[in-house]
Amino acid sequence: xxxxxxxxxxxxxxxxxxxxxxxxxxxxxxxxxxxxxxxxxxxxxxxxxxxxxxxxxxxxxxxxxxxxxxxxxxxxxxxxxxxxxxxxxxxxxxxxxxxxxxxxxxxxxx
Length: 110
Prior knowledge:
There is one protein chain. The strands form 3 sheets. The protein has a two-stranded parallel ribbon with strand order 1-4. The chain has helices at 22-31, 45-48, 58-72, and strands at 40-43, 50-51, 54-55, 76-79, 83-84, 97-101. It is 26% helix and 17% strand.
């Protein structure tokens, strides 16, 4: 995870997380088959939706996107770059940290 600008270091996080997606893993092959229908929703997390004028954090984004996906019938969600970048207008395409997500949308725990 990158530090908030103007700091530029990447930070290491240790997450004790247990996956609970066994059902998804068992059934994903038929949904993700090369000949399965696909409908992709692409978005930039920072400009897609705001809450009281602020960015949604990663967890808020996840819940809102899962709801949208289910309601609208999208099969996939594509996030535009979430790496750290100095110029916000670039939507992340001028990255300064290829291997760590931006802290603009919270920490790995939020």
